[in-house]
Amino acid sequence: MIKNYIIDTNVMIHDPNFMHKFSDNNIIIPLLCIEELDNLKRREGLVGFHARSAAKELKKIMETGDISKIVRLPNGGTIRVELNHAGTEVLPNGVDLSKNDSKILAVVKNLEMVYKEIPTILVTKDLYMSIKAASLGIQVQDYQNDRIETEKIYKGYTDIVMSSSEIDKIYSEGLDLPQGLNKEIYPNEFLHIKSTDQIGHEVLARYDGDKIVPLKYSNENAWGLTPINREQKMAFELLMNPDIKFVTITGGAGSGKTILATATALQNVIETNKYRKIVFVRPVVPAGQDIGYLPGTEKEKLKPWMGSFYDAIENLTDIKETVKGNSSQNKPIFTVEDFIDQFRQRGIIETKTFTYMRGRTFTNALIIVDEAQEMTPHLAKLMLTRAGERSKFVFLGDPSDNQIDNHYVDARSNGLIYTVEKMKTFKITGHVTLKRVERSPLAKIAEKYM
């Protein structure tokens, strides 16, 4: 059945390509939502960028027809901007008619009465708008197109059993996937294999897309750092392998995401020169004003947002000195800022937010995007399209709702988890979910019980 979908402004900000995601149904945009989009176009950061992107997509549609009436879309649906049916007399007493949300709800209620034979559904990502709409008897949906079922999110590893003779073949010639597995195994998925006929015989291996193979980097360290649990070893393997061009690592606070990525980056760039430079990126989503309003240069603006990288480098420096056997008494005295500035001046380290990355192509570079759960799927795609030859991208983050400050995404629709699911089938990509908190006993307790 054909449906009328009324699109809230936040849906356009979340996905500027929303108009292509509703199949053969009717998309209706209240004129007020276009006004709100216009007001957001000069905002710094992600919101302003997405507002401008949505407007550009609508402009393309306007080239094919009159959007104030009906424009037919390639997928068979239609789109139009609703100029009428804005009367607020359909709303009950107690509704604040000065609010834009109330005016949009009035449009939806009026369209319900006009199109009695067609289901009229408000699509919004605003929780409070959803509550008000439901209380008025309006059908309301979240934007479902890019939502992932959290119970089915790919972890990057699985447990299986096989005979000891089969396990031995992994180390001699590689092993084909056994027949009869009750789940699909993806390229670069890890297998924790236990023997069916020899107690205590177990290995951690990787499926490379063709065969089950042993880990290559399990006995190495990076910048003095050695992975300390099963999942960290998996992440380390993905990060150190130059054939894997895109890595996603998810996990809670203190699970080791940033320090593992930073250590392998320093090792692969500064020590072994596998890449020309490291680019640390944060998709800035502030609680107050955006980064463009802050005083100073790009470097000075970004410094407050780069604390996780600074902390990782400081901790790694301590680890590296310990591995070398240097005591704290004769340890060289320098700050993390000195270290980063030294390599920044040589073009080896960059710190960026996406605002300063548009239009760039990164060649022979290792790009680490921290707090990637703050990105929309649209932005995640745009980030990956910055990849040039011989580059590697790493997305890090905790996709749980309590770690997301961007109210345009949530645990099931953020760019990190969307990318994990969409990219898991390729031989040049890999993912792992870190489960254990290794920061400290206190951090472990807080993560589990608070």
Structure description:
It is a single chain. This protein has 450 residues and is an alpha/beta fold. It has two domains: 4-141, Rossmann fold, CATH 3.40.50.1010; 221-449, Rossmann fold (3-Layer(aba) Sandwich). It has helices spanning 9-14, 31-40, 45-62, 100-114, 127-135, 164-172, 230-240, 257-271, 298-302, 307-324, 336-345, 377-384, 415-422, 441-449; strands at residues 4-7, 26-30, 71-72, 78-82, 120-123, 139-141, 157-162, 189-195, 202-207, 212-214, 246-251, 277-281, 349-352, 365-369, 392-397, 429-434. It has a six-stranded mixed sheet with strand order 3-4-2-1-5-6. Strands 13-12-14-15-11-16 form a six-stranded parallel sheet, with helices on both faces. A four-stranded mixed sheet has the order 7-8-9-10. Helix 12 packs across helix 13. It is globular.
Number of helices: 14
Main β-sheet, spatial strand arrangement: 3-4-2-1-5-6
Helix percent band: 25-40%
CATH class of the largest domain: Alpha Beta
Secondary-structure-derived class: alpha/beta
CATH topology of the largest domain: Rossmann fold
- For the record, the count of structural domains works out to 2
